[in-house]
Design brief:
28% strand, elongated, four-stranded mixed beta sheet
């Protein structure tokens, strides 16, 4: 069933007025579902939430209500709405399998990078709380939302790490080069996750920043920028700028590639089995020394120092 969003204000006003006039108002409110509305913390650029008691009882009305609240200014002045003023939802519809499809105006495409990921996370985590909504799909002007030339597809709240109360120390394994540049050194550490972006983005940027321990060396050239990273159906798609093709002294193709592949595949979540690279959103046939680069890479533990 498709539902235009033009009626939201009228619906909510009538519903709230009826609730206020009811002699059993206090009891009715106690029976309504308490949910979280997700926002962006302007101080930390992380995702945060405020509790909210829904008035609507029907699934359709609850989705309308939560969309309205996502657009409404939060009570906390340091928070801001995850849905910018210029981003409008045209309509939404349900199917029989618990899928909610949210169709945005074309202005959603103006959101990029971290801003888009946080908007996506806030909307999905908020609307997933409605009973009967098991999966959420984003469309933009009637077309499926794309991320790095891949359809984003079905989303659930579990796709986004919930860290609304405080920063989280997230255990990861990062792989850097040894002194000779012909093997990988495993470095186990915790990264501070505050709800901004994705874990994949954080660990790749850690690799770009380079090691902090003596005896470990860079695998990614200076000036490399992570343009996009997303994971779908077990494949992590990583898009760099052209600087990633530059040659680092003594670092072989395999060490450069598998420092990223091994790091991503060993993340506890999401479930990544393979990594596929692009350069400036385009498939690159070969890498620096002629290594095939237009394929999906699986983890290679034989490259870790001391494994042979």
């Amino acid at each position: 069933m498709k539902k235009p969003l033009a009626v939201i204000l009228v619906f909510l006003f009538a519903l709230m007025l009826g609730a206020c006039n009811s002699s059993n108002n206090d009891k009715a409110i106690e029976d309504k579902s308490v949910v979280n509305i997700y926002y962006i913390d302007t101080k930390t650029s992380g995702i945060v939430s405020e509790t909210y008691q829904m008035i609507g009882t029907e699934k359709e009305h609850q989705v309308e209500e939560l969309i309205y609240m996502l657009k409404k200014a939060p009570e906390n002045v340091v928070y801001k709405s995850a849905l910018p003023e210029n981003v409008t939802i045209k309509e939404f519809n349900f199917d029989e399998d618990g899928q909610l499809t949210v169709n945005f105006e074309s202005t959603y495409s103006d959101l990029t990078g971290i801003s888009e990921v946080m908007c996506r996370a806030a909307v999905v985590k908020t609307l997933s709380q409605v009973t009967g909504v098991d999966f959420i799909v984003f469309n933009v002007n009637g077309q499926p939302l794309m991320d790095s030339d891949q359809v984003v597809g079905l989303m659930t709240e579990e796709d986004f790490i919930d860290n609304t109360a405080a920063d989280t120390n997230y255990p990861v394994k990062l792989y850097f080069a040894n002194e000779n540049g012909d093997a990988l050194i495993e470095y186990t550490t915790n990264i501070n996750y505050n709800g901004t972006g994705t874990i994949e983005e954080l660990v790749v940027n850690q690799l770009i920043n380079g090691p902090t321990e003596i005896g470990m060396y860079d695998t990614i050239p200076e000036g490399t920028t992570l343009l996009n990273v997303s994971t779908k159906e077990g494949i992590c798609y990583v898009d760099f700028n052209e600087k990633f093709l530059d040659k680092l002294p003594n670092i072989t193709d395999k060490i450069a590639i598998y420092s990223i592949v091994n790091t991503l595949v060993e993340l506890p979540v999401p479930d990544i089995n393979k990594v596929q690279f692009t350069i400036n959103s385009k498939v690159q046939k070969t890498y620096r020394e002629g290594t095939d680069f237009d394929v999906s890479f699986e983890r290679d533990l034989s490259l870790i120092e001391g494994s042979k």
